[in-house]
Amino acid sequence: KNQVEQSPQSLIILEGKNCTLQCNYTVSPFSNLRWYKQDTGRGPVSLTIMTFSENTKSNGRYTATLDADTKQSSLHITASQLSDSASYICVVRHSGTGKLIFGQGTTLQVKP
Amino acid sequence: EAGVAQSPRYKIIEKRQSVAFWCNPISGHATLYWYQQILGQGPKLLIQFQNNGVVDDSQLPKDRFSAERLKGVDSTLKIQPAKLEDSAVYLCASSSRAGGLGTDTQYFGPGTRLTVL
To answer: CB neighbours (10 Å) of residue A63?
Structure first.
């Protein structure tokens, strides 16, 4: 079954600290993987996208990694800010159907 | 560039009542999506339009949900009658085209939060 699992479900860190969010998927065949940031009361916004051949992609303080062999991705946030408080959703596109399979998200809270 | 617009932002109804949500995608975007996001979960695709045609509605509960995009621009999603389990955020998204390389970004609207009492 094509699934996307994220961990942890929620995370609290202090401002200025780093953190890493995990995404494991069983989607096959794989097309690409995106990380979205969803602020409370807003729609998701794309942070990064990686295809099969890419293993690292950065967007400012956000760095995503992809290991297509183990079907794992991570999102690393450096020097966290209060504005990083949000849900982060991992989304994998199925190459055959083109459908997007969404993870349940990780809720990050950054405290001062 | 204006983003995806949705209205209303919030709606509270009683079960068995009807409700409608409206979405205006980014200008020129051919593909429009409606998602249901239950609290604590990722979005679930309800229906995908390519221009004014339906591409995928496999997860749309057709006995109570309906959607249309008559002129290939804005869209309406309706629930009739609503059930308690329909309480969720309904997100609309658009992209410039479906399929292709599969890397087209979906741009999401702010969503409509529906509470069914």
So the answer is: 17
Q: How confident is the model at residue B1 (pLDDT cuts 50, 70, 90)?
A: low
Q: Is the CB of residue B97 less than 8 Å away from at least one CB of chain A?
A: no
If we measure between CA atoms, which residue out of B60, B109, B68, B65 comes closest to residue B89? B109
> Best mutation site among A95, A100, A107 for testing chain B: the one with the most B CBs within 10 Å?
A100
Q: Which amino acid is at B35?
A: Y
Please enumerate, as own/partner, the contacts of A1-5 that have beta carbons within 8 Å and a separation of 24 or more: A1/A26, A2/A26, A2/A27, A2/A28, A2/A92, A2/A94, A2/A101, A3/A27, A3/A101, A4/A90, A4/A91, A4/A92, A4/A101, A4/A102, A4/A103, A4/B42, A5/A103, A5/A104
pLDDT of residue B100: 45
- B41, B102, B111 ranked by CB distance to A43: nearest: B111
Residues of A with CB under 8 A from a CB of B: 4, 31-32, 41-46, 49, 51, 89, 91, 93, 95, 98-100, 102-105
- A7-57 pLDDT, tens digit each: 999 999 999 999 999 999 999 888 899 999 999 989 999 999 999 889 999
Phi and psi (nearest 5°) for B14? -95, 155
Chain A and chain B share a number of CB contacts under 8 A equal to 48
